[in-house]
Amino acid sequence: MKVSIIILNWNGGEQDCVESIESALSQDFTNKEIIFVDNGSSDGSYESVMARFPDLIYVQTGSNKGCPEGRNIGAKQASGDVIVFLENDGEWKETDVVSQAIDFMLENKNIGAMYTAVEGYQSEILDPPVDTNNSGVESVQFSSTFRGGASFIYRNIFEKTGGFPSDFLRQGEEVFISYQIIDRGYDIVYWPQRTLRHKGSDYTGKSDAVMNYNYINDLKTITRLFPFFYYLIYIVGKIGINMPRFIKKGKFLVFLKLTAQGVIDVKNRHKYTKISIKGLKKFNSIKYNKDKKID
User: Fold this and answer.
1) What is the DSSP letter of 211?
2) What's the rounded mean pLDDT across residues 234-243?
3) Residue ranges of the alpha helices (H) in the chain?
4) Burial of residue 48 (number of CB atoms within 10 Å: 0-12, 13-18, 19+)
5) How far apart are CA 162 and CA 114, in angstroms?
6) What is the model's pTM?
7) In this model, does residue 107 exceed pLDDT 80?
8) Ramachandran class of 164: left when φ > 0, alpha when ψ lies in -120 to 50, beta otherwise
9) Do 212 and 135 contact (CB within 8 A), yes or no?
10) What's the pLDDT score for residue 137?
11) Which residues lie below 8 Å from residue 227, measured CB to CB, with a gap of 6+?
12) CATH numbers and ranges of domains, the chain
């Protein structure tokens, strides 16, 4: 078993990138490669890291392709059986994260993807799992999706899904491929036995851009992947739920623009294999079921 640890950087700063790389290098799992993807940085972080760690695999995209496509580019260089996405402003607390994660995946054959616990780098406050607001979850649980920068995914499964949607600059790319992973009969798991310390988890006051990207990418996901009848139901529901949020923030014109982009995206429906009704229902069952514990 070989793992490919992919670190994506865009003006992340030398110190953060060094800490992330050293965290990957310190892992006691020996059969690994580290792929450093630079998304068009202009702060000198790429040059500094390359000079300090010459034995890594380096990829330059030339410009900021966004997080999803940047990780796709890194995945194309991977030769490992498992792809590990590690935040460039994060580090693992323990040196056996990779080895223990791989052992768990091998013991549980139906896992297609999983992610570790994530905590604030300074605050040490745990982020809640993706399906709940409860930050105190300590047990391994089924999940509807995963945290991209703290995740483990079998490379063959990642490739079968087509990877992250290349036109998503940020937000929602994990959900997009999670629908496909679950539809193919694999499990996604939250594995809090090991932890990623993440500087981004300490940031407060996220911008309206996050709301915008979440909305448009949700529309694109529904449009591209859902069976026709469910596409109509969910697209109307998504529009109805989000309209008051944008109006409350005085962003109604932004809402109209994003909605129009989502509707126009219907031209791309034929390019994607639709998930099954069974897969859609299983995704929702996992997402909204409060009892997610793995026996």
Assistant:
1) H
2) 96
3) 14-25, 45-52, 67-76, 97-107, 155-161, 173-183, 208-225, 228-248, 252-264, 277-288
4) middle
5) 18
6) 0.94
7) yes
8) beta
9) no
10) 76
11) 274, 275, 276, 277, 280
12) 3-202 (3.90.550.10), 208-274 (no CATH)
234 alpha carbon, distance to own chain's centre: 22
SS3 168: coil
Q: How far apart are CA 295 and CA 287, in angstroms?
A: 18
pLDDT digits (tens, 9 = 90+) for 65-92: 999 999 999 999 999 999 999 999 999 9
Statement: residue 217 has pLDDT above 90: yes
Contact residues for 187 (Cβ-Cβ < 8 A; gap 6+): 108, 110, 111, 112, 142
Tokens of 54: 């010459």
Residue 36 token pair: 């450093």
Residues 6+ apart with CB under 8 A from 26: 95
Q: Are 198 and 248 within 8 A, CB to CB?
A: no
Which percentage of the chain shows pLDDT scores above 90? 85
* SS3 readout for 186-198: CEEEEEEEEEEEE
Q: Tens of pLDDT along 146-202?
A: 999 999 999 999 999 999 999 998 899 999 999 999 999 999 999 999 999 998 877
Q: Which residue has the tokens 């079968």?
A: 160
Cβ neighbours, 10 Å, residue 47: 12
Residue with tokens 């036109």: 167
What are the tokens at 234? 């969910």
Q: What is the pLDDT of residues 2-52, one digit of tens each?
A: 999 999 999 989 999 999 999 999 999 999 999 999 999 999 999 999 999
**Other Cβ atoms within 10 Å of 194 Cβ, number:** 18
- Containing 221, the helix (H) or strand (E) segment is helix 208-225
Cα radius of gyration (the chain): 19
> What pLDDT was estimated at residue 31?
97
Residue pair 163/85 in contact by the 8 Å Cβ criterion: no
Helix (H, G, I), strand (E, B) or coil at 23: helix
